[in-house]
Amino acid sequence: MPLDWKPDLLDGFQQHTFDLGRDPDGEGTAAAVLVRKEPDDAVPVRGAVLYTHGFSDYFFQTELADFFAARGFAFYALDLRKCGRARRPGQTAHYVSDLARYDQELDLAVAAIAAEHPDVPLLLAAHSTGGLILPLWLQRRRAAGSPAPVSGLILNSPWFDLQGGAAQRGPVTQLLRLAARAVPLRALRLPASPYGDTLHRSRTGEWDFDLELKPLQGFPVTVGWLNAIRRGHAALHRGLDIGVPSLILRSDRTHFSTRYSELSDRADLILDVAQIARWAGCLGGETTVVPVPGARHDVFLSRSDVRARAYDAVDTWLRQRAWASS
Fold first, then answer.
1. Based on CB atoms within 10 Å of each CB, which residue in 45, 101, 217, 298 is the most buried?
2. What is the reported pLDDT for 278?
3. CA proximity to 219, closest of 33, 81, 84, 35
4. Full-model pTM
């Protein structure tokens, strides 16, 4: 059945809402929103891309969509349940107790894209938490004997491990397992970060995004959600076999700080990039890792000179696989 496309909040984009039924975590009815760049019938489609956001995020990166569209890719993005466009009143932002909950909307989105663009390669792209969610979904599809119709994976600063040393991560993980049973929606007190200030035009950044959908200090991190993340990390660390080649982009340095400085614009303020490098091989198959000097946590929201290098790396990777013109 064709999707019911309606105008999106971004000019030049359309959206379709997937009704996901009752929320298994007990917060009403769930929905996910698929966004697409308005098709240009004059441009032949040689592939398609589905982008998935991270925590405290939603799709607004129109420059990323333009990059792929210029190379003949139909561009789609998915706001996951309780995130961005898909969050409903009374729902805890981004909350799920199990990352496998997202399989439902990922299955629907991929099937819809394949129906609109059959017989072309479909690539997945994801940022941060999305970079953990998508490999786990690909693994579950393969384990179930129904591999997703996906040709490649592009990850932008994927969240492959909890920040901090091993001595901290172990006890924290054990406490989360216990607390998630008793108080899953309890918010954790975490240090403030200047990351949002580096991005938004109202502060020191160059990007416009809806502060209701992506607050500068992010949404509260809940015990149950972080427990789901740690279970996802454990599955990744045991080793996956996602069945497609991967490109991983990350910054060349981490800078954890609660105050803004010039370095805040040239480093990952959220994740430990050494952990990304350490666990990249757990995806299985061919994996290309590209450190991007001076990149922010969202590599494609870095300063213009830095993100140009990131786009060049993606372009090279696409051309090497004949998914883009030489």
1. 298
2. 97
3. 84
4. 0.97
pLDDT one-digit tens code per residue, 249-285: 999 999 999 999 999 999 999 999 999 999 999 999 8
Question: Which residues 6+ apart lie within 8 Å of 106 measured at CB?
Answer: 52, 78, 133, 134, 137, 148
Rounded Cα distance between 195 and 25, Å, is 30
Question: Are 148 and 141 contacting, i.e. CB atoms less than 8 angstroms apart?
Answer: yes
Q: Is 56 exposed, middle or buried (0-12, 13-18, 19+ CB in 10 A)?
A: buried
Give all domains of the chain, ordered by start, each with its CATH number: 6-162+228-320 (3.40.50.1820)
